[in-house]
Design goal:
alpha+beta, Hypothetical Protein Pfu-838710-001, CHAD domain, eight-stranded antiparallel beta barrel, 16 helices, inorganic triphosphate phosphatase activity, Adenylate cyclase, CYTH_domain
């Protein structure tokens, strides 16, 4: 057994009811080349300090029993994360029994890590996974990989969570083969990209943490980073936001998490739009279409969450005993339930699974470059600072072209302005880390002021349209309540429009931070 190796794997979620279909998929039968799936009972015991200090340093220590073949212990540490395709250093040695013995490692690199982070610390059993793994080696194109289908649970104390996933581990060849095979299999079996390890699930169980809203961390770019690396970093961030918040939609756990999933998809759309001229058509067009479709599947849920959580409470506070307002809430809650069902339906559509895998490939390697021209390749290889300036210029011009008489814009024109402002904001967030922090902060403050006004105007327009769908099912009292909401929105729109011209003028008067 080789003590040290680098592990590159693609992880996918699969509904247990589809496992048999996966095993019998025609493409899988072809690439197995006559080899059979071998099923092994795996019990893996993960160790850490009581406060999980090793996990905080990116270290995972595991003891595993592989059926009747005895025990082994493994240390894993991140070797850089290509978002959808984690690459890890891994050290494994055999054990005579299931007792942790870190002195068994002989490789100097792992010994240095353990001496630095684990020596003299209390390390104990934290959680375990108990599963059956069906595995087989595959030859696909010029790559060799292992397919593993894991079914079982992760357990910490009395708490446990089910595991049903597929892993493709690259043994030789290019990572592109992992995604290409997964996309082929996805035509037969619903497979969804996953970025959560068994260890992260076990730690959540140990800490008693329930999933909640995941907000994006700032995009960390550097002056010497290529435009391509920056682009892939942006895609990776949007993909992580989408996947991390998906559970909030599936289980209706957190209104903000539902919103942040939609934000993640929007950030991905903006990243593709910003780099549009430097990307070949083909799959980029497909990605934009898939993103638009999937984002639309979340629109209704967000609209009703805003109405029920922000708008209606203000009306209820002023008219606490109004029967029509209570009827309006009940009708809106029914619409929200329907919108949630529609969002969940979207998550189970093939388009969503395809979107995740293609985005994962784009974030993990240069898949975007297929069909790119020499000019596009040159632009994406240039330093990000060279490409950022014209991209930000273009976004800035779209926002400021309406700087006169902005309060006279129609509802569709205000919506278009809001989308341009949002793209400008995300562009500033994406590229801001390579410019002066002070200048970026000042620029974003004026941009945010304008965006907040436009957001309130959009909420009013959307709510009016959504309420119009309710009128046929409301009583006279309910229709009166709709009138109360409409009157409130009318006053709000006038108030917000009064400040919009000033906000737009203040934004246009400042100096762009990238100049």
């Amino acid at each position: 057994m080789t003590e040290k190796q680098i592990e590159i794997e693609l992880k996918l979620r699969i509904d247990p009811k589809h496992v048999t279909r996966l095993k019998n998929a025609p493409v899988l039968r072809e690439v197995k080349e006559g080899r059979r799936l071998t099923t092994t009972h795996l019990v893996s015991i993960y160790h850490d300090t009581p406060k999980l200090s090793l996990a905080d340093k990116g270290l995972a220590i595991r003891i595993r029993k592989k059926g009747t073949k005895g025990w082994e212990q493994t240390v894993k540490t991140s070797n850089g994360l290509r978002e959808a395709l984690p690459s890890r250093h891994e050290w494994t040695v055999e054990l005579e029994d299931g007792v942790l013995d870190l002195d068994r490692f002989t490789d100097k690199d792992v010994k240095k890590l353990l001496n630095k982070f684990a020596k003299k610390k209390k390390i104990d059993r934290i959680f375990e996974s108990d599963l059956k793994r069906s595995a087989v080696d595959l030859t696909y194109r010029d790559a060799v990989m292992e397919l593993a289908i894991d079914q079982g649970v992760v357990r910490s104390g009395e708490k446990e969570t089910p595991i049903s996933e597929v892993e493709f581990e690259l043994k030789s060849g290019h990572p592109a083969a992992l995604f290409d095979l997964a996309l082929e299999l996805q035509r037969t079996v619903p497979l969804l990209l996953s970025m959560r390890s068994k260890a992260s699930r076990g730690r959540d169980l140990y800490l008693g943490q329930a999933p909640g809203a995941y907000r994006a961390a700032p995009v960390a770019l550097s002056d010497d980073m290529s435009a391509e690396t920056a682009f892939r970093t942006m895609l990776g961030q949007g993909l992580r936001m989408t996947l991390s918040n998906e559970v909030c939609v599936r289980q209706d756990l957190d209104v903000e998490g539902c919103h942040q999933m939609r934000v993640g998809l929007r950030r991905l759309r903006v990243a593709l739009n910003l780099f549009k001229k430097n990307l070949p058509a083909g799959e980029a067009v497909l990605l934009r279409r898939l993103l638009k479709t999937c984002s639309k599947g979340l629109d209704g849920l967000r609209d009703w969450d805003v109405f029920l959580g922000e708008t209606l409470p203000m009306i209820e506070e002023r008219f606490p005993d109004h029967a029509g307002v209570a009827e309006l809430r009940k009708a809106a809650e029914k619409q929200r339930a329907d919108a949630l069902a529609a969002a969940r339906t979207m998550l189970d559509q093939p388009e969503y699974g395809q979107l995740l895998l293609i985005l994962g490939a784009w974030a993990s390697y240069s898949r975007w470059a297929s069909g790119a021209s020499a000019e596009q390749m040159k632009a994406m290889a240039s330093p990000v600072t060279e490409l950022a300036s014209p991209l930000l210029d273009a976004a800035y011009k779209r926002v400021t072209k309406r700087d006169k008489h902005v309060s006279e814009l129609s509802v569709p024109q205000l919506h278009a302005l809001r989308l341009d402002v949002k793209q400008m904001r995300y562009g500033a967030e994406f590229f801001g880390s390579v410019y002066s922090v002070k200048k970026v902060k000042k620029f974003r403050s004026k941009l945010t002021a304008m965006q907040e006004i436009l957001g309130k105007l959009q909420d009013a327009a959307v709510a009016e349209a959504r309420l119009a769908d309710l009128t046929a099912q409301l009583s006279k009292e309910g229709l009166v309540a709709v009138g109360l909401v409409s009157g409130w929105f009318g006053a709000r729109v006038e108030h917000e429009l009064a400040g919009l011209e000033d906000a737009v003028a203040a934004f246009g008067a400042q100096k762009a931070f990238w100049k």
